[in-house]
Design goal:
Layout (H helix, E strand, L loop, with lengths): L6 H11 L2 H8 L3 H10 L4 H10 L7 H5 L5 H5 L5
Helix pairs in contact: 1-2, 2-4
Length: about 80
């Protein structure tokens, strides 16, 4: 199963909300759920839509935030290179 890079999403959350807690409230998601999703992925379509809406990102850009695959090298090093 491919692993996805969430750096762009994390950056957008940090820039707009500062914290996962503030973002979670705006997206109507539990902070623990957002943390888990950022670490492991497996976002549901409804969660992606809520995140994009909270961040004022058009649905047409969903791929850039949720479906950018990590490089094979990054995957081998646990995402840290």
């Amino acid at each position: 199963m491919p692993q996805y890079n969430t750096d762009k999403l994390r950056e957008a959350i940090s820039e707009k909300f500062g914290t996962i807690a503030a973002f979670s409230k705006a997206a109507d998601l539990e902070p623990s759920t957002v943390s888990r999703l950022l670490q492991r992925g497996n976002w549901k379509a409804s969660q992606m839509k809520a995140a994009l809406n909270a961040l004022n990102i058009p649905l047409s850009e969903v791929g850039a935030y949720f479906f950018e695959e990590k490089s094979a090298i990054a995957q081998q090093h646990g995402g840290k290179i």
